[in-house]
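Final report, closing paragraph on structural work. Over the funding period we assembled a curated collection of sequence-structure pairs, and we close with a single example.
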Amino acid sequence: ALGEPVLIESEGCIVYNEAGSERMAVAAVGCEDLVIVVTGDAVLVAPKDRVQEVRKAVQELKARGAKQV
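Its predicted structure, as stored:
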């Protein structure tokens, strides 16, 4: 875990808080085997075993004209 997330009764999670705890509070409660990524302009939450499908989300965001991708 990076960025000092609060993990309560959560197991096997990978949490990346790019902004850091002083700028963005991130908490997960009762989660298992998730990837949680927080950047300055986006948040991704996905089961570890489906993280390879992130490109589908990126494609959809592009189709919607999202400026973040």
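The mean pLDDT is 93. The radius of gyration is 13 Å. We thank the funder for supporting this effort.
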